[in-house]
Amino acid sequence: SILICIHKIQPIVLKSSFLFLQLTASGLILAAVSIFFFIGPPTPFTCIARSWFLAIGFIIAFGSMLAKNWRLVRIFTQAKRLKTAKNIHDIHLIQYMLLMLVPEIIILVSWLYLDPSTPTVTLAGGDKYIYCQSKNNSWIGIVLIEPIVMVIAGAFLAFQTRELPSQFRETYY
To answer: pTM for the whole thing?
Structure first.
């Protein structure tokens, strides 16, 4: 995030949309922070924070990349069809990102309210194991549905943008 601010007048940063680079970096930082909740024995807070930080961080990071690439696909698809390319402003992409966040937050809040993940102790062979667990383990699968759909959509958008001029093909890197 700091490097993006330092180099924000560089052509590659300008072409890549400063706001969405910052959002991607912020999401990655949130996801990376989730690693620290795996240090030490789990507590009720760390059990919940692990999934929240990772899920929200992923949606923000990947959602901002999806939004930018969707804009490119829209602009170049309209240009190919000899239509006037509509200017898709950053605020519209932010709205789409918020729409991506809402279902994940609803799922996480439901999980927190209905069946929160808590530290569980198991004794095996004289050793004590402490790990996070909900009564119903299907919550992890439910939380993963949206990220999986986003990865599939990202692959589709990467395929769509494969023939764009090189200055617009971030998916190439």
So the answer is: 0.85
